[in-house]
Every structure is written in structure tokens, then in C-alpha cells.
Amino acid sequence: MKVLLLTTGSRGDVQPFLALARGLTEAGHEATVAAPRRFAALSAEVGAEFVGLDDSLFVLQDELVGAGTWAAITAASRARPYLQRWLDDLASLAGTRADVVVFTQKTLGGASIAEKLGVPAIPAQLIPTVPATSAFASPLAPARTPRALARLTWSLADAVERPWRGMVARWRAERLGLASRAPRFASLVAAGGILSAWSPHLLPAPSDWPASAAPLGFWTVPAAPDWHGSPALEAFLDDGPPPVLVGFGSMTHRDPAALAAEVVAGLRRAGRRGLIVSGWAGLGATSAAEDVHVVDAVPFASVLPRVAAIVHHGGVGTVAAAMRAGVPQVVHPFFGDQPFWARRLHELGVAPPTLSSLTADGLAASLAQVDALVPAARRIRAALAGEDGVAAARARIEAAVGGHG
Length: 405
What we know:
Elements: E1 2-6, H1 11-26, E2 30-36, H2 40-46, E3 49-53, H3 57-64, H4 69-73, H5 75-91, E4 100-103, H6 110-117, E5 121-125, H7 165-176, H8 185-192, E6 195-196, H9 231-238, E7 244-247, H10 256-269, E8 274-277, E9 292-295, H11 300-303, E10 309-312, H12 316-325, E11 329-331, H13 338-348, H14 360-367, H15 374-384, H16 389-404
Parallel strand pairs: 1-2, 1-4, 2-3, 4-5, 5-6, 7-8, 7-10, 8-9, 10-11
Helix pairs in contact: 1-16, 5-7, 10-14
């Protein structure tokens, strides 16, 4: 079968789909990921077929770093031309040969492409946004939302679509020749379920969810058995006790040098060596030293088993990698669903309380707690060893295509 996978966002939004594409290909199917074109190199590393789409929205995201609340509130109007370019690129996929389309809510037009092709449309989610539940508040809700209001907060996910429905309606009519009214994401989920790409060992399905929405397991790329870092990195990893890995993925920071200084000071106060992954946060602003090694990027699946703990932003992709490696986690969330995962990891006993602001003293205090969390982290690693989220998703996709045929 030919599978078209549509996603957009940061690396954490794209890499799981590359893992799914690889798993589908290894099972004998043809899978293509269509995503922002800046992830072409990552796709090549994973070995997945890739179509690059417009990624100019990242320009606006970079401009908003540190710009304040009002700038973020008023950004919707500025985003329109960027999202129009995204939709126009998405329309080019209407000539693609596919038997099924798997897509996230943020793609906006994913279901429309499936409709144009006349093939099944399968929603997917990397964090829980649908269906609504009374068991806990949406990961997008404020941290201190009262339990009585939990179900109401799930309407926040619908806000992803609401500002752009008029734009999508015109795009459907003008570019795809479809009726202007697009099916809502939540309606598609209610009708046919959704591929939920996280582990039930991280967050089990609440009792009021249907089985068709239950988490299938993480979509991760296996560690390369023959991977080796640069000679300098290998020497650093071998030349002392396991370091603490620090990296904030695709997050950006208004003052990278100040953030890097706090990180290094916190590591030293805790008596820890540090492996710093500079990433988009620009942590490379710090200088390497005998106790600190700086790299642009590393494959977490290969490196995390060799560290003592990881300090990160709380993106679910990094959470998954750390859980699979069995290492404690210190989480300094930036925004969105990250505080939700930070609280959840603390509940599971694999992370200290959320590090809401990153200071040298706060980081050192958190690192003083991680050794006691190792047994819980290793128990979860053992539980995840028998889980294969990619295979579970593949089975669901195969069933959908078989039923459609």
C-alpha cells in the first residue's frame, strides 16, 4: 500500500512520522512523509521518502521569541500569508498516488487531500488533544485548571482550526475543487478513531475514551547499532563518570548566552560533567571545557544510554527517548504541552518537580535528586522493551485500507 504521511511543526512533530514511514517501508509498503522542507536532511538520516513543503512559518516563530504576550496574541493575522503558502504547497499533493493519508490537526488540509484522492483519512496525534475527557485537563490548558473544568479545556484543541476555517474553505474550493465545508478534526476522530503516538506507560487512556483513541506506543527510530560520535565526543564520554545531557530541542531562547551560563554553573555546582546539545536554543554560546562538551546534535537513542540524566524542555519526543533509555529527566518547560509532561514525569517518579525557571541553583538542586530516580526510570525502560508503537499503527493503517477496499 502507498501511505502519505502529513505533518508540520518542530522536529518533535516530524521525527515520529519519519519513524512510522521507515517501519511501513520495512514491512513492504511505500510511505512518504510530506513536512516542512527543513527536515529533508533528517529524513535522509532516517531513511524515509520525503516531500518538502513550505516552512516559512518558522520565520514568524523565530521573530516571536521574547517578543511578549501581545505579540503572540496578534500573530494570527501575520501568520495568514505563511499558512497560505503552506496550503498551496499541500495542494500539490493532490496529484500524489496514495491509498491512505495519515495527518495531524496542525496540517489544516490533511483530510482535504485524502478527500481529493478518494482514500481513507486517518487522524494522528502525538499528544492528547482529542477526544475530551473528565479525567484530566487538556495538555494545552493552564497548569492549575480545576478538576471540575477539565472537560471544558479540551475545546482548546478546536482553536487550532477555528481561525483558519475560512481560509481552508476557500482553498478547498479554489485549489482542490471540493465543497468548501471541510470535516472537523474532532468529527473525523469520533467517526473512525485516531492514531495516538505515545506510550500508555507514559499516559494511559482515560476510562471515558474509546478503544480507537487509546495510545499505541511511541513512534521511534531504533538506535543505530554501529553509531559512533566524533573522536572528541567519544573521548569525553569515556573519560569520566556519565555526564548529564542538556538540550532543549527546537526551542529558542531570547538570551542563549545567559541560559548557557546558568546551565554550566548549575552543572558545576552539582558536581556533574555536562554534554550540551546546542540545538535551536543556541546553547553553543557556552565554551567547551574539560567538564563540558558541546555538540550541535546527537542521536538521542544512541547517546542517552551513556548519560546519567537529561535536562530538556519536555517535548514528548525527548520524553520518549529518555524513557526508552531508562535515564532520569529534569524538565524545564517552555510552553504548550511541555508543563503537562513535566508534571506527568514527576508523578511517574522519573523527574524532580518541574523546573519552571532555569537558574544555576535550581538546576543543581534538581540534579541532586536524579540518582534516587534511577530505579523508577529503569522499571519504565523494561516495560517499554516489549512495546512497538510503529507496528501497532501500521496494523491500524492496514486495517483501514483493507476495509476501504
